Amino acid sequence: MNRVTTKYGPLPSTAMKYLPIIEKYSKKYNVPVIIIANIIRAESGGNPEAWNGQGGENSRGLMQMSQKTALTHPSQMIPVMLLDTLYEPDFNIKQGTKLLSYIRDFLKPHFQSDSTLTSRWRAVANSYNQGEGYYRDALRTVTNQGKSQDWDTVKYYVLNPIVRTSHPWPENVEFYANKVLEGVTEDHLKGTFRVFPKPSTANLMSFLPWIAVTVTGMGVIYYVTQLAPQGRLAANPRVTLKKIFGGL
Q1: CA terminus-to-terminus distance, the chain
Q2: What are the pLDDT digits (tens) for 176-185?
Q3: What fold is seen in the domain 3-189?
Q4: d(CA 232, CA 85)
Q5: What are the phi and psi torsion angles at 208 (to 5°)?
Q6: pLDDT for position 91
Q7: Does the model's pTM come out above 0.85?
Q8: 136 CB-contact burial (10 Å; exposed 0-12 / middle 13-18 / buried 19+)
């Protein structure tokens, strides 16, 4: 499989024509470019018109968003009349990257602090393909068992869960992870699990000018739509301001 050397790592050639779109949503959702590109290669081979009806999936587009996920997943909720928009590269990559971001944040509390970024993204990528519940439960089990979250241990508990349910277990666990993590190093994934700082007083103070502008704008709109049509127009600007902000 041909790869192109880039600042993001070796990207599959099949995804290169979509690089500007991938970069845009990588930045927006803090998902590595190389992960998005590898999923495009794994899911559709770079074909925006790809469709898979196997098992009733009805998956569409570059990142093969299934119909059920598109309609019902908390990160998606796409109206049924827009499903075919998933054949458009920009919309498909946006929604696929948004799903990856959701899964990453969903699993984040269950990762041990010393787990590697590559093992974390293996779990995220496989969750994209197979469902995040399997990996959340496996991560919990590994921690409860007092074990380290290396990939082999996590994979074992995905395939051999402590608590069994009626759901079929995911297939091709190793195969899919290997395709999505091909060419990926820890350096390519830096910063993608960072914890954002809580807002400080200084940060909140920086919003005060915008709040002032917003309140003033609302007052002007109130004046134009409510006071002026009633003939309550004041020649003196001070009187007008008193009317706007004086409880009228």
Answers
A1: 70
A2: 888 888 889 9
A3: Lysozyme (1.10.530)
A4: 50
A5: -60, -45
A6: 95
A7: no
A8: middle
